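#struct-pred
JK: can someone run the complex with zinc ion? inputs below
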Amino acid sequence: MKCPICKHGDTMTGTASITLEKNAATLVFKGVPAQICNNCGEEYFTDNITQSIMKQAELAIAQGVQIDVRQYRAA
Ligand SMILES: [Zn+2]
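RT: done, structure tokens with the ligand placed:
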């Protein structure tokens, strides 16, 4: 797709990292499937992936995780 941010680049399939900070916890998900703009580098994630990340983050925080770096796994 055309990048809606810079309006010049095209997005390419790739992977990116997402960092979530919630309360005192910091969670980093690596290798998350994304569409990445080849011009400005903006990363786009599908709703499914965002929701899955949120769910995994809530679970980790509920388990008392304060800082964690993990590989993204599809739900
Ligand atoms: Zn762009």
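RT: quick notes.
Residues 11-71 form a domain with the Ubiquitin-like (UB roll) fold (CATH 3.10.20.860).
Residues 3, 5-6, 9, 37, 39-40, 42 surround zinc ion (CB under 6 Å).
JK: thanks, will look after standup
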